[in-house]
Amino acid sequence: MRSGVVLQGVDTPDVFESYVTEIERSGFDHLWLTDSSLHSRNPYAYLTLAARASSRLLLGTAVTNPLTRHPGITAVAAATVDEIAAGRFILGIGAGDRPLEALGMRPAKLAVLEDSIAAIRALLRGGDVDHTSAGFTLHDAHLRFGARADIPVFISASGPKTLELAGRVADGVVLLAGLHTDGIRFALEHIDRGVAAAGRSARPHVAVFAYGRIDEDEQAALAAARSIAAWFPQTAPVYCELAGLDRPLIDEVRRRYSGGEFQEAAAAAELLPDEFVRRMALSGNRERTVAQLRGLAEAGVDSVNVFPLGDDRMSTVARFRDAFDAAFGARAEVAEVTEVADGTEVFAR
Questions:
Q1: Which of 155, 135, 21 is nearest to 70 (CA)?
Q2: How far apart are CA 132 and CA 115, in angstroms?
Q3: Which run of H or of E encompasses 332?
Q4: pLDDT per position as a tens digit, 74-90
Q5: What is the pLDDT of residue 106?
Q6: Rounded Cα–Cα distance for residues 341 and 253 (Å)
Q7: How far apart are CA 323 and CA 180, in angstroms?
Q8: How far is Cα 131 from Cα 116, in angstroms, rounded to an integer?
Q9: pTM for this structure?
């Protein structure tokens, strides 16, 4: 099991760099930066800061999309950060989410996401790329500088079709399904369908993003996590049903909260039972978090990445590190890529 931290570019550069230093010193394997259009600072600029402030953390976007930047420009950004980070970059990419609306966009169709990944990979391999579709166009395009050909691509997924796409083509999956093990197993089944359809011999790395707060004051932890729990009925209702929420309540939460700013979720979040919040997010003390982490490992997850909520985010990061070490013992060696017999590259578990 690997560990990671997900941050937003909401802090000043100096503060952010101090966080990176502390995250690496604490023994985490991954650091992810959100890419939410106008909500936070540019992730590639901040990942460059992270590359300079660290020596072994794997650094990734969490996640970018095929729309706000042309896939050719994303390939350039990925190659540049990867070069600065000496081969430690991961391209996390998905269809996009609600922040796109401020730019007059809607999430990308699955075909555009798949085509974009194929084009980015072809450019990184040094090929000449021609592509014309409703999503984007490339005319005899190629990178005019050297790039690592095998920069890992992680697809952000929750729905069955995107999960199956990830199983077919991705090096990893950023799984947005909450923390309830029934939901995790449902997602893994769809990933495995994609793996089988592509004739791959290994499942891609499965990285769960665990939103929330860890606190010995469990009511404070629940309060911090409640709004993110209200986000799941809008974006991933099947996981809400698997976690025990009945359909009429899911529909009422969706009516009150459309899935935009978390601050707007308060009225809808108050409808949610405490136990549902606990199943979808980190929202308890050390003991509860240790049990959640062990359950995720048993379900088949390869890494858990804390997305801290609330004012004192780094306290949750430290408590997560403590719970992770309690759950799994000594810290594992740095995550690395391994190759299986058919040439499929997967991240070491």
A1: 135
A2: 10
A3: none
A4: 999 999 999 999 999 99
A5: 83
A6: 47
A7: 18
A8: 10
A9: 0.93
Which tokens is 191 given?
């990933």
Considering only CA atoms, which of 271, 264, 329 is closest in space to residue 297?
A: 329
Quote the number of domains for the chain.
1
Q: Is the peptide bond before 15 cis (omega within 30 degrees of 0)?
A: no
Beta strand 345-347 pairing with 337-339: antiparallel
Rounded CA gap, 45 and 23, in Å?
A: 18
**Strand partners of residue 3:** 304
pLDDT tens, position by position, 194-212: 999 999 999 999 999 999 9
* pLDDT (mean) for 229-251: 96
| Residue 50: predicted pLDDT | 99
Q: Under a CB-based contact definition with an 8 Å cutoff, are residues 111 and 273 in contact? A: no
What integer pLDDT is reported at residue 299 of this predicted model?
Answer: 99
148: in domain: yes
User: Is the Cβ–Cβ distance between 176 and 291 less than 8 Å?
Assistant: no
Cα end-to-end span (Å), the chain: 6
Confidence of residue 344 (pLDDT cuts 50, 70, 90): very low
Indicate whether 162 belongs to any domain. yes
> Which residues make beta-bridge pairs with 146?
none
- Expressed as residue numbers, the domain containing 133 is 2-216+282-347
57: which residues sit within 8 A by CB, 6+ positions away?
A: 20, 23, 24, 28, 29, 30, 31, 50, 88
How far, in Å, CA of 14 to CA of 171, rounded?
Answer: 32
Could you give the CA distance from residue 185 to residue 296 in angstroms, rounded to a whole number? Answer: 10
Helix (H) or strand (E) holding 337: strand 337-339
Strand (E) or helix (H) holding 208 = strand 205-212
CA distance 247 to 64: 31
User: The CATH number of the domain where 153 resides is what?
Assistant: 3.20.20.30
Print the SS3 string covering 43-106: HHHHHHHHHHHCCCCEEEECCECCCCCCHHHHHHHHHHHHHHCCCCEEEEECCCCHHHHHHCCC
Q: Which DSSP string do the residues of 130-143 spell out, in sequence order?
A: EEESSS-EEEEE--
Q: Is 58 part of any domain?
A: yes
- The answer for 344, left when phi > 0, alpha when psi is -120 to 50, beta otherwise, is beta
